[in-house]
Amino acid sequence: MRSYAWFALLSLLLPTIGARELFASPQDVVPAGAILNIRTTQPIYADYVRPGARFTGIVDDPVMIEGRTIPRGARATLEVIGVEQSSTLKGRDRINFTVRSIHVGNSSYAVSSDYVQVKGPSEGKKAARKGIIGGGIGAAVGGLLGGGTGAALGATAGAGTGVAIAGSGKEHLVVPAETRLQFHVSGVR
User: For residue 185, what is the DSSP state?
Assistant: First the structure.
Protein backbone atom coordinates (compact mmCIF):
# COMPACT_ATOMS: atom_id res chain seq x y z
CA MET A 1 0.00 0.00 0.00
CA ARG A 2 2.86 2.30 0.81
CA SER A 3 4.32 2.04 -2.73
CA TYR A 4 0.99 3.16 -4.18
CA ALA A 5 1.08 6.27 -1.98
CA TRP A 6 4.55 7.21 -3.28
CA PHE A 7 3.44 6.52 -6.83
CA ALA A 8 0.38 8.74 -6.38
CA LEU A 9 2.48 11.51 -4.80
CA LEU A 10 5.08 11.39 -7.57
CA SER A 11 2.43 11.34 -10.28
CA LEU A 12 0.99 14.56 -8.81
CA LEU A 13 4.36 16.32 -8.36
CA LEU A 14 6.03 15.32 -11.63
CA PRO A 15 3.78 17.41 -13.90
CA THR A 16 4.28 20.51 -11.74
CA ILE A 17 8.06 20.10 -11.76
CA GLY A 18 8.14 19.63 -15.54
CA ALA A 19 5.49 22.30 -16.21
CA ARG A 20 8.05 25.08 -15.96
CA GLU A 21 9.99 23.47 -18.80
CA LEU A 22 6.90 22.67 -20.87
CA PHE A 23 5.31 26.11 -20.58
CA ALA A 24 8.41 28.27 -20.76
CA SER A 25 7.90 31.64 -22.40
CA PRO A 26 10.12 32.57 -25.34
CA GLN A 27 11.77 35.26 -23.15
CA ASP A 28 12.84 32.54 -20.72
CA VAL A 29 14.38 30.41 -23.47
CA VAL A 30 16.04 33.08 -25.68
CA PRO A 31 16.41 36.34 -23.73
CA ALA A 32 17.61 39.63 -25.21
CA GLY A 33 21.38 39.92 -25.13
CA ALA A 34 22.07 36.25 -25.81
CA ILE A 35 24.76 35.53 -28.40
CA LEU A 36 23.93 32.84 -30.95
CA ASN A 37 26.65 31.29 -33.12
CA ILE A 38 24.90 29.69 -36.07
CA ARG A 39 26.34 27.72 -39.00
CA THR A 40 24.72 27.71 -42.41
CA THR A 41 23.70 24.30 -43.74
CA GLN A 42 23.82 25.04 -47.48
CA PRO A 43 25.61 27.41 -49.85
CA ILE A 44 23.87 30.74 -50.43
CA TYR A 45 24.50 32.52 -53.75
CA ALA A 46 24.26 36.32 -54.09
CA ASP A 47 23.26 35.80 -57.75
CA TYR A 48 20.05 33.98 -56.85
CA VAL A 49 19.01 34.91 -53.30
CA ARG A 50 16.45 37.66 -52.66
CA PRO A 51 15.34 39.44 -49.46
CA GLY A 52 12.81 37.32 -47.59
CA ALA A 53 14.46 34.00 -48.49
CA ARG A 54 14.76 31.69 -45.47
CA PHE A 55 17.45 29.12 -44.76
CA THR A 56 18.07 26.60 -42.03
CA GLY A 57 21.06 27.01 -39.75
CA ILE A 58 22.39 25.00 -36.83
CA VAL A 59 23.26 26.43 -33.40
CA ASP A 60 27.01 25.89 -33.21
CA ASP A 61 27.67 26.48 -29.49
CA PRO A 62 25.29 25.63 -26.65
CA VAL A 63 23.86 28.71 -24.94
CA MET A 64 23.37 28.52 -21.16
CA ILE A 65 20.81 31.02 -19.84
CA GLU A 66 19.53 30.95 -16.27
CA GLY A 67 19.70 27.18 -16.00
CA ARG A 68 18.24 26.58 -19.47
CA THR A 69 20.19 25.41 -22.48
CA ILE A 70 19.79 25.98 -26.18
CA PRO A 71 21.69 22.87 -27.24
CA ARG A 72 24.32 22.67 -29.91
CA GLY A 73 22.62 21.33 -33.03
CA ALA A 74 19.28 23.09 -32.41
CA ARG A 75 17.77 24.35 -35.65
CA ALA A 76 17.58 28.06 -36.41
CA THR A 77 15.72 29.81 -39.21
CA LEU A 78 17.78 32.52 -40.92
CA GLU A 79 16.22 35.15 -43.18
CA VAL A 80 17.96 37.22 -45.86
CA ILE A 81 17.00 40.84 -45.20
CA GLY A 82 19.19 42.51 -47.80
CA VAL A 83 21.24 41.73 -50.91
CA GLU A 84 23.56 44.12 -52.75
CA GLN A 85 25.39 43.08 -55.89
CA SER A 86 28.45 44.95 -57.09
CA SER A 87 28.99 46.07 -60.63
CA THR A 88 31.72 44.43 -62.67
CA LEU A 89 34.22 47.20 -61.89
CA LYS A 90 33.38 48.60 -58.46
CA GLY A 91 31.79 47.76 -55.14
CA ARG A 92 31.34 44.40 -53.43
CA ASP A 93 28.54 41.89 -52.98
CA ARG A 94 26.78 41.86 -49.61
CA ILE A 95 24.16 39.59 -48.05
CA ASN A 96 22.48 40.53 -44.74
CA PHE A 97 21.04 37.81 -42.48
CA THR A 98 18.94 37.82 -39.32
CA VAL A 99 17.62 35.03 -37.06
CA ARG A 100 13.84 34.58 -37.17
CA SER A 101 13.34 31.55 -34.91
CA ILE A 102 15.04 28.88 -32.82
CA HIS A 103 13.67 25.34 -32.63
CA VAL A 104 14.38 23.48 -29.38
CA GLY A 105 12.88 20.03 -29.15
CA ASN A 106 9.27 20.27 -30.31
CA SER A 107 9.03 23.98 -29.51
CA SER A 108 9.69 26.91 -31.81
CA TYR A 109 10.56 30.39 -30.51
CA ALA A 110 10.34 33.54 -32.65
CA VAL A 111 13.47 35.65 -32.19
CA SER A 112 14.59 39.16 -33.15
CA SER A 113 18.32 39.63 -33.67
CA ASP A 114 20.73 42.12 -35.13
CA TYR A 115 21.80 41.50 -38.69
CA VAL A 116 25.05 39.98 -39.87
CA GLN A 117 26.54 41.10 -43.16
CA VAL A 118 28.67 38.80 -45.30
CA LYS A 119 30.82 40.70 -47.82
CA GLY A 120 32.48 39.57 -51.02
CA PRO A 121 35.82 40.87 -52.32
CA SER A 122 36.06 44.45 -53.59
CA GLU A 123 35.73 44.67 -57.37
CA GLY A 124 37.30 48.15 -57.52
CA LYS A 125 40.62 46.97 -56.07
CA LYS A 126 40.65 43.96 -58.39
CA ALA A 127 39.95 46.13 -61.48
CA ALA A 128 42.62 48.67 -60.50
CA ARG A 129 45.19 45.93 -59.94
CA LYS A 130 44.47 44.34 -63.33
CA GLY A 131 44.58 47.76 -65.04
CA ILE A 132 47.96 48.58 -63.49
CA ILE A 133 49.42 45.19 -64.39
CA GLY A 134 48.02 45.45 -67.94
CA GLY A 135 49.46 48.96 -68.28
CA GLY A 136 52.88 47.81 -67.10
CA ILE A 137 52.96 44.87 -69.48
CA GLY A 138 51.74 47.08 -72.37
CA ALA A 139 54.39 49.73 -71.62
CA ALA A 140 57.14 47.09 -71.54
CA VAL A 141 56.09 45.51 -74.82
CA GLY A 142 55.48 48.91 -76.48
CA GLY A 143 58.86 50.19 -75.26
CA LEU A 144 60.65 47.20 -76.72
CA LEU A 145 58.91 47.45 -80.06
CA GLY A 146 58.53 51.20 -80.58
CA GLY A 147 60.66 53.15 -78.12
CA GLY A 148 59.17 55.96 -75.96
CA THR A 149 56.07 56.55 -78.09
CA GLY A 150 55.45 52.81 -78.28
CA ALA A 151 55.71 52.58 -74.49
CA ALA A 152 53.04 55.25 -74.03
CA LEU A 153 50.71 53.64 -76.56
CA GLY A 154 51.38 50.18 -75.10
CA ALA A 155 50.64 51.38 -71.56
CA THR A 156 47.31 52.86 -72.65
CA ALA A 157 46.32 49.76 -74.58
CA GLY A 158 47.48 47.44 -71.80
CA ALA A 159 45.60 49.35 -69.09
CA GLY A 160 42.42 49.29 -71.18
CA THR A 161 42.81 45.59 -71.81
CA GLY A 162 43.46 44.93 -68.10
CA VAL A 163 40.30 46.77 -67.05
CA ALA A 164 38.28 44.98 -69.74
CA ILE A 165 39.56 41.64 -68.48
CA ALA A 166 38.73 42.65 -64.89
CA GLY A 167 35.16 43.44 -65.94
CA SER A 168 34.64 40.18 -67.75
CA GLY A 169 35.11 37.24 -65.36
CA LYS A 170 33.17 38.49 -62.32
CA GLU A 171 32.16 35.90 -59.76
CA HIS A 172 29.49 36.92 -57.26
CA LEU A 173 29.59 36.15 -53.55
CA VAL A 174 28.83 32.62 -52.37
CA VAL A 175 28.33 32.01 -48.64
CA PRO A 176 29.55 28.41 -48.31
CA ALA A 177 27.79 25.77 -46.21
CA GLU A 178 29.23 25.61 -42.69
CA THR A 179 29.84 29.38 -42.54
CA ARG A 180 29.68 30.51 -38.91
CA LEU A 181 27.62 33.64 -38.23
CA GLN A 182 27.32 35.37 -34.84
CA PHE A 183 24.03 37.07 -33.90
CA HIS A 184 23.04 39.13 -30.86
CA VAL A 185 19.44 38.52 -29.79
CA SER A 186 17.54 41.79 -29.34
CA GLY A 187 14.28 40.20 -28.19
CA VAL A 188 11.61 37.65 -28.91
CA ARG A 189 8.40 38.11 -30.87
Answer: E
